[in-house]
Amino acid sequence: MSKVICDVCGTTYPETSVSCPICGCAKNTTTQTAADSAPQADSGAGYTYVKGGRFSKSNVRKRSKGEKNYSRGSSNQKPEQEKTNIGLIVVVMILLLAIVAVLIYIGVRVFTPDTPQPSGTSQSTLPSSTGTSEPETVPCTGIDLDDETITLSAEGSAWLLNVKAEPADTTDKMTFASSNDLVATVSPSGNIKAIGPGEAVITITCGQIVKECRVICTFGDATQPTTNPTDPTVNIPADFVLKLNREDFTMSNEGEKWTLYTETNGVKASDITWTVDDPAVATVENGRVTAVNYGDTQVHATIGDQTVSCWVRVRFHAATEGEGEEEGEKLKLNKTDVTIKVDETFTLTLTNSEGVKMNVEFTANEEGYVTIDGGRITGAKGTADLDNKYVIVSATYEDVTYSCKVRVTEPKTEE
Fold this sequence. Notes:
By secondary structure, this protein is mainly β. The protein has one helix spanning 78-111; strands spanning 3-5, 12-14, 41-42, 47-48, 142-145, 149-152, 158-160, 163-166, 174-178, 184-186, 191-194, 198-206, 209-217, 224-225, 248-251, 257-259, 273-276, 282-285, 288-291, 295-303, 306-314, 332-333, 337-341, 345-347, 350-351, 363-364, 370-373, 376-379, 391-397, 400-409. The relative contact order is 0.07. Strands 14-17-20-21-15 form a five-stranded mixed beta sheet, with no helix packed on it. A four-stranded mixed beta sheet has the order 6-13-12-9, with no helix packed on it.
């Protein structure tokens, strides 16, 4: 007997029954019989009936293997479409970023001013064929001075020095200085003005060249005795010869003293009359000379019919109240004018305001008159045959030259 499978519940029952004994569903004319071994495909429904009924899970429509006939617009195409859209977005973003970067670069180059180079930095550039060099230095080789001695007869009278440097294009500057401002002053242009009676020396300096002009002011009384005249009761030995231990010497420090005479044949310094031409430069008492202020003067010693003289050169400016502070900041040469004898030695030193000695080399503008060993200067030959009667010993430190006049005297021969 043939059996029928219920389309609803999947129950097998005899073919002779009108309906399913379990669910009561009427038999369908297309109902599959249990004897059918091969599944029958429903082309309309797209699924196959199996045991368990139409609504069994096994009868749910399944996609056939290898089936790729998707309908247009199906959701199965969404992943591939999304990948395509993301790629386009990435490309567009990259292009937009490149355009923005180009615009920013153009804006910076066009609207931002060039930054000035900081001071103190250097740029390497090719050497210019027309580069400028340092100005050439032309040293002074001589001074042409018309007047070596000037006499002024009235207070306040003036005299303009006629002086020229050689060569005319020298780069050295010419300077003027007075040895005694109480007698005569001189301006930076060489204009001399009479101040008081006495003598002064105007020094003209141009580089290493030095010239002097003597100024004599004849108004007033320039000579003042500093001690009483010789006592007429003093007995002078017949063989006594008045001599001083110096004929020319220099003092470089304020208050410095020097004794010119040593007792001889019982004649004391107090037995001699001592006078000085300019007490503003130096004073003398019983042969003892005291420096006062910058300048040159002569000290005279007289006894009986004998008179001898000595040049005194003071080479410092006496400090007044409120002055002298700025000088300490400069370098200083310990001596600027020295008078020595042949074979006599003195030492030159250049120091700063703290007294620290500078390492410099000293040289002389004339050879053969002094010997130099470091800072030790020794007289070798008298300078009386020179036009200026002295040599200049100098040293240069940081482009500044410091000079000292050195007079060398030779001992007199006994007649």
